[in-house]
Fold this protein.
Amino acid sequence: MNYVWVRGEEEACSQLVAWSKRLPTVYTFSTQWRFKAIPLTLRNRESCGLFHVHQARGITLSVWQSSAISHYIGLEEGLYFLTAAVLGLTKWQALRRNPLLREEDLIRDSIDSCLFARRLFIEEYALLLEHPRVCRYCRHFFESLCSRQEIDALDTIIAYAAAQNTPQRYASIPA
Protein backbone atom coordinates (compact mmCIF):
# COMPACT_ATOMS: atom_id res chain seq x y z
CA MET A 1 0.00 0.00 0.00
CA ASN A 2 1.28 3.46 -0.93
CA TYR A 3 0.35 6.23 1.47
CA VAL A 4 -0.14 9.69 0.01
CA TRP A 5 0.03 12.77 2.22
CA VAL A 6 -2.36 15.34 0.74
CA ARG A 7 -1.78 18.96 1.71
CA GLY A 8 -2.57 22.43 0.42
CA GLU A 9 -5.95 23.89 -0.50
CA GLU A 10 -8.19 22.54 2.25
CA GLU A 11 -11.43 22.18 0.27
CA ALA A 12 -9.65 20.46 -2.63
CA CYS A 13 -7.80 18.13 -0.24
CA SER A 14 -11.08 17.10 1.40
CA GLN A 15 -12.72 16.40 -1.96
CA LEU A 16 -9.77 14.33 -3.21
CA VAL A 17 -9.57 12.25 -0.02
CA ALA A 18 -13.34 11.66 -0.06
CA TRP A 19 -13.29 10.52 -3.68
CA SER A 20 -10.28 8.27 -3.09
CA LYS A 21 -12.36 6.25 -0.64
CA ARG A 22 -14.94 5.49 -3.35
CA LEU A 23 -12.51 3.82 -5.72
CA PRO A 24 -10.18 1.00 -4.74
CA THR A 25 -6.59 1.77 -5.66
CA VAL A 26 -3.14 0.89 -4.45
CA TYR A 27 -2.96 4.38 -2.88
CA THR A 28 -4.31 5.53 0.47
CA PHE A 29 -4.83 9.30 0.54
CA SER A 30 -4.86 11.21 3.82
CA THR A 31 -4.37 14.76 5.04
CA GLN A 32 -2.42 13.34 7.99
CA TRP A 33 1.34 13.05 7.63
CA ARG A 34 2.72 9.53 7.76
CA PHE A 35 6.32 8.34 7.62
CA LYS A 36 7.38 7.58 4.02
CA ALA A 37 4.11 8.92 2.61
CA ILE A 38 4.28 10.37 -0.90
CA PRO A 39 3.76 14.14 -0.65
CA LEU A 40 0.96 15.53 -2.83
CA THR A 41 0.50 19.31 -2.70
CA LEU A 42 -2.60 21.00 -4.12
CA ARG A 43 -2.00 24.61 -5.13
CA ASN A 44 -4.48 27.17 -6.36
CA ARG A 45 -2.29 29.18 -8.68
CA GLU A 46 -1.88 29.43 -12.40
CA SER A 47 0.37 26.74 -13.76
CA CYS A 48 1.30 25.57 -17.21
CA GLY A 49 0.43 22.00 -16.34
CA LEU A 50 -2.09 20.00 -14.42
CA PHE A 51 0.61 18.45 -12.24
CA HIS A 52 4.38 18.39 -11.79
CA VAL A 53 6.52 15.68 -10.28
CA HIS A 54 9.78 16.02 -8.41
CA GLN A 55 11.75 13.13 -6.97
CA ALA A 56 12.28 14.78 -3.58
CA ARG A 57 9.20 17.02 -3.26
CA GLY A 58 6.63 14.60 -4.65
CA ILE A 59 3.70 15.77 -6.77
CA THR A 60 2.26 19.26 -7.08
CA LEU A 61 -1.25 19.42 -8.49
CA SER A 62 -2.77 22.64 -9.79
CA VAL A 63 -6.34 23.23 -8.66
CA TRP A 64 -6.46 26.56 -10.51
CA GLN A 65 -9.67 26.76 -12.56
CA SER A 66 -10.60 23.26 -11.37
CA SER A 67 -14.22 24.17 -10.78
CA ALA A 68 -14.67 25.46 -14.34
CA ILE A 69 -12.73 22.60 -15.92
CA SER A 70 -14.52 19.88 -13.96
CA HIS A 71 -17.87 21.50 -14.80
CA TYR A 72 -16.92 21.66 -18.48
CA ILE A 73 -16.05 17.96 -18.63
CA GLY A 74 -18.91 16.94 -16.35
CA LEU A 75 -16.84 15.42 -13.54
CA GLU A 76 -17.15 16.10 -9.86
CA GLU A 77 -14.17 18.15 -8.70
CA GLY A 78 -12.97 15.44 -6.34
CA LEU A 79 -12.83 12.91 -9.17
CA TYR A 80 -10.98 15.45 -11.32
CA PHE A 81 -8.40 15.88 -8.53
CA LEU A 82 -8.11 12.13 -8.00
CA THR A 83 -7.57 11.52 -11.72
CA ALA A 84 -4.81 14.13 -11.86
CA ALA A 85 -3.27 12.77 -8.64
CA VAL A 86 -3.07 9.20 -9.98
CA LEU A 87 -1.48 10.48 -13.21
CA GLY A 88 1.10 12.34 -11.14
CA LEU A 89 1.68 9.38 -8.84
CA THR A 90 2.30 7.13 -11.85
CA LYS A 91 5.02 9.50 -13.09
CA TRP A 92 6.47 9.84 -9.60
CA GLN A 93 6.69 6.07 -9.16
CA ALA A 94 8.57 5.79 -12.46
CA LEU A 95 11.05 8.44 -11.28
CA ARG A 96 11.49 6.71 -7.96
CA ARG A 97 12.19 3.33 -9.51
CA ASN A 98 14.77 4.46 -12.06
CA PRO A 99 17.47 6.65 -10.51
CA LEU A 100 18.79 7.55 -13.97
CA LEU A 101 15.57 9.36 -14.86
CA ARG A 102 15.07 13.05 -14.16
CA GLU A 103 11.84 15.02 -14.08
CA GLU A 104 12.54 16.51 -17.52
CA ASP A 105 12.87 13.00 -18.99
CA LEU A 106 9.17 12.49 -18.33
CA ILE A 107 8.05 15.58 -20.23
CA ARG A 108 6.44 14.41 -23.42
CA ASP A 109 5.58 16.98 -26.05
CA SER A 110 2.99 15.44 -28.29
CA ILE A 111 -0.03 16.47 -30.28
CA ASP A 112 -1.90 13.27 -29.49
CA SER A 113 -4.63 13.03 -26.90
CA CYS A 114 -2.62 11.18 -24.26
CA LEU A 115 -3.15 12.34 -20.68
CA PHE A 116 0.62 12.29 -20.15
CA ALA A 117 1.34 14.64 -23.07
CA ARG A 118 2.42 18.09 -21.91
CA ARG A 119 0.01 20.93 -22.55
CA LEU A 120 0.90 24.61 -22.44
CA PHE A 121 -2.36 25.69 -20.82
CA ILE A 122 -4.23 23.93 -18.03
CA GLU A 123 -7.50 24.51 -19.91
CA GLU A 124 -6.27 22.07 -22.58
CA TYR A 125 -6.62 19.25 -20.07
CA ALA A 126 -10.37 19.77 -20.20
CA LEU A 127 -10.26 18.60 -23.81
CA LEU A 128 -8.06 15.62 -22.96
CA LEU A 129 -10.37 14.58 -20.14
CA GLU A 130 -13.44 14.58 -22.37
CA HIS A 131 -12.17 11.24 -23.71
CA PRO A 132 -9.35 10.28 -21.33
CA ARG A 133 -6.75 7.85 -22.57
CA VAL A 134 -3.10 6.90 -22.28
CA CYS A 135 -1.27 6.32 -25.56
CA ARG A 136 0.51 3.08 -26.35
CA TYR A 137 3.97 4.67 -25.94
CA CYS A 138 3.25 5.97 -22.42
CA ARG A 139 1.47 2.77 -21.41
CA HIS A 140 4.49 0.67 -22.39
CA PHE A 141 6.89 3.08 -20.66
CA PHE A 142 4.98 3.15 -17.36
CA GLU A 143 4.24 -0.58 -17.41
CA SER A 144 7.99 -1.18 -17.51
CA LEU A 145 8.60 0.97 -14.41
CA CYS A 146 5.44 0.73 -12.28
CA SER A 147 3.89 -2.19 -10.48
CA ARG A 148 0.87 -4.02 -11.87
CA GLN A 149 -1.26 -2.57 -9.03
CA GLU A 150 -0.19 0.99 -9.91
CA ILE A 151 -1.06 0.45 -13.58
CA ASP A 152 -4.39 -1.07 -12.52
CA ALA A 153 -5.05 2.04 -10.38
CA LEU A 154 -4.32 4.23 -13.40
CA ASP A 155 -6.61 2.15 -15.63
CA THR A 156 -9.37 2.14 -13.01
CA ILE A 157 -9.39 5.89 -12.50
CA ILE A 158 -9.25 6.66 -16.23
CA ALA A 159 -12.07 4.22 -16.99
CA TYR A 160 -14.16 5.62 -14.15
CA ALA A 161 -13.56 9.22 -15.23
CA ALA A 162 -14.45 8.31 -18.83
CA ALA A 163 -17.69 6.68 -17.70
CA GLN A 164 -18.63 9.55 -15.38
CA ASN A 165 -17.86 12.53 -17.56
CA THR A 166 -20.68 14.25 -19.37
CA PRO A 167 -19.03 17.09 -21.30
CA GLN A 168 -21.00 20.32 -21.38
CA ARG A 169 -21.12 20.83 -25.13
CA TYR A 170 -20.55 24.39 -26.27
CA ALA A 171 -19.78 25.51 -22.73
CA SER A 172 -16.84 27.79 -22.26
CA ILE A 173 -14.33 27.84 -19.47
CA PRO A 174 -14.51 31.21 -17.72
CA ALA A 175 -11.30 33.21 -17.83
Summary: The mean pLDDT is 88. Residues 77-97 form the longest helix (21 residues). Strands lie at 2-8, 27-30, 38-43, 51-54, 58-62.
